[in-house]
Amino acid sequence: GAGVSQSPRYKVAKRGQDVALRCDPISGHVSLFWYQQALGQGPEFLTYFQNEAQLDKSGLPSDRFFAERPEGSVSTLKIQRTQQEDSAVYLCASSFRVGPNYGYTFGSGTRLTVV
Amino acid sequence: AQSVTQLGSHVSVSEGALVLLRCNYSSSVPPYLFWYVQYPNQGLQLLLKYTSAATLVKGINGFEAEFKKSETSFHLTKPSAHMSDAAEYFCAVTTGNQFYFGTGTSLTVIP
């Protein structure tokens, strides 16, 4: 597609509910990132994929967070047993190549509200 | 470790006035630096990036930034603010694949 697509745009979950957030990167983009942006803050790194391989998951805040990219394209971020502190905008970004020389294209994000 | 500090969480300028958004970085190795803009309910859009070529970097919408190693700064400027520039601006640094973002500066343009 023309850009990075994320769905749903908005998600309201009851505390304790499991959620799944989807990211469709730009076709052919090798690198894919997930970031968490709390209200009034800058995005914080969660995890990074190169094709289907999850090369860095150091930013995942707890074992309730899980991400996958099984075929090297679409990625899903899953949060189990959601807590109020999980409320944030979850941003996905992708890049055609690997390396810091390339800026990334960000999606519009999924705003998760846990009530 | 890498980090960025954005001085001033809110900046207000009059339409037509100079825009100056400050960013200082910390990095143990030569950094790559970026400025992103975020409009309400949208993702981040790349304004410009420094990748060790020219120290003065020109971006979209008339913005530019100058990399000053001696001051560890990468401030964003625009000579004349436009109403459409009102948004949240983020400075980011990376030396690898992970980006480290500042806390953002909200720019208000007063007509």
Please give a quick description of this structure.
The complex is a heterodimer of chains A (115) and B (111). Chain A has 115 residues and is an all-beta fold. Chain A has strands at residues 5-7, 10-13, 19-24, 31-37, 44-50, 53-56, 65-68, 75-79, 88-95, 105-106, 110-114.
What's the structural blueprint in terms of helices and strands?
The complex is a heterodimer of chains A (115) and B (111).
Chain A: E1 5-7, E2 10-13, E3 19-24, E4 31-37, E5 44-50, E6 53-56, E7 65-68, E8 75-79, E9 88-95, E10 105-106, E11 110-114
Parallel strand pairs in A: 2-11
Antiparallel strand pairs in A: 1-3, 3-8, 4-5, 4-9, 5-6, 7-8, 9-10, 9-11
Chain B: E1 3-7, E2 10-14, E3 19-26, E4 32-38, E5 44-50, E6 56-58, E7 64-68, E8 73-78, E9 87-94, E10 100-101, E11 105-110
Parallel strand pairs in B: 2-11
Antiparallel strand pairs in B: 1-3, 3-8, 4-5, 4-9, 6-7, 7-8, 9-10, 9-11
Describe the fold and architecture.
The complex is a heterodimer of chains A (115) and B (111). Chain A is mainly beta. Chain A contains no helices and eleven strands. The model of chain A has no long low-confidence stretch (mean pLDDT 93). Chain B is mostly beta strands. Chain B has no helices and eleven strands.
